[in-house]
């Protein structure tokens, strides 16, 4: 039985992938992934060293999600429960509606479109369900693959962070990419244009009818004005 107040972890699905909660049984795959030099080259963290260390990290994932600090999914193929990587949001600020995204896949699963698929689904969830307004991504300047991926799914380069990370005593330049949730603003803009267009149309027809009514009696004029009023009210109700 689920504890009262405990949030249900969201499971996401794409054409080929399932993004699911990372559990203790995944510790072996997590250790393997994040001790791989090719994976860590552009990830910006030290190699993991033991299963116990990974189990502690997995517990922190659960705690972080409950406290709205982060969310981390394991990525698996639909036909195989074994993880092929991870993806998630960290530096999650509910107050400012923002977070940063990070992701990593085993090298044997690179260049197959899996990362693009996972990032697209996670970003959609971040905007639509977690109500983020801004999602950032910190990328090594040499990581051309990740830069191309982020550009493909709508991220824009915001700037370069100098002296941002020290890895093996070497300072690294970092690009900051961002994507903002502008859909609502764009919709409002279109909606306002629609409202303005309907208003001008109404005024034009009203003046046309009023001019036409000058050829008829006053009672007909009142009747046409009444029809205009009903038409305008129906448009307001439809909106």
Explain what you see.
The chain has helices spanning 27-33, 37-40, 51-66, 114-128, 144-152, 183-213, 218-238, and strands spanning 12-13, 17-21, 71-77, 83-93, 98-105, 134-140, 156-167, 170-180. The chain is an alpha+beta fold and 239 residues long. It is globular, with a radius of gyration of 27 Å. It starts with 11 loop residues before the first strand and ends with a helix.
SSE inventory with pairings:
Layout lengths: L11 E2 L3 E5 L5 H7 L3 H4 L10 H16 L4 E7 L5 E11 L4 E8 L8 H15 L5 E7 L3 H9 L3 E12 L2 E11 L2 H31 L4 H21 L1
Parallel strand pairs: 5-6
Antiparallel strand pairs: 1-2, 2-3, 3-4, 4-5, 6-8, 7-8
Helix pairs in contact: 1-3, 6-7
Share of residues in helices? 40-55%
Global Rg: 27 Å
* Beta-strand percentage range: 25-35%
Beta strands, count = 8
Q: What is the rounded distance between the termini?
A: 45 Å
Structural category: alpha+beta
Biggest sheet statistics: 8 strands, mixed
Task: Based on Cα principal axes, name the global outline.
Answer: globular
Uncertain spans, ≥5 residues at pLDDT below 50?
A: 184-195
- What's the tally of helices? 7
Mean pLDDT: 82
Helix-strand pattern, N to C?
EEHHHEEEHEHEEHH
Strand order within the widest sheet?
A: 1-2-3-4-5-6-8-7
């Amino acid at each position: 039985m689920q504890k009262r107040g405990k949030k249900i972890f969201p499971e996401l699905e794409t054409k080929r992938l399932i993004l699911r909660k990372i559990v203790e049984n995944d510790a072996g795959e997590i250790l393997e992934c994040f001790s791989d030099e090719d994976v860590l080259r552009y990830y910006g963290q030290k190699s993991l060293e033991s299963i116990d260390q990974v189990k502690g990290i997995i517990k922190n994932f659960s705690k972080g999600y409950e406290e709205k600090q982060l969310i981390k999914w394991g990525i698996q193929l639909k036909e195989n429960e074994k993880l092929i990587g991870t993806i998630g949001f960290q530096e999650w600020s509910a107050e400012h509606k923002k977070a940063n995204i990070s992701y990593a896949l085993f090298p044997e699963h690179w260049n197959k479109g899996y990362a693009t698929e996972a990032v697209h689904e996670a970003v959609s969830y971040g905007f639509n369900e977690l109500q983020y307004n801004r999602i950032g991504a910190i990328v090594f300047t040499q990581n051309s693959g990740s830069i191309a991926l982020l550009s493909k799914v709508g991220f824009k380069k915001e700037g370069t962070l100098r002296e941002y990370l020290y890895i093996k005593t070497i300072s690294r330049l970092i690009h900051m990419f961002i994507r903002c949730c502008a859909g609502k603003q764009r919709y409002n803009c279109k909606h306002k244009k629609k409202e303005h267009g309907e208003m001008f149309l109404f005024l034009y027809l009203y003046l046309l009818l009023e001019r036409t009514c000058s050829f008829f009696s006053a009672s007909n004029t009142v009747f046409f004005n009444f029809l205009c009023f009903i038409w305008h009210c129906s448009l307001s109700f439809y909106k």
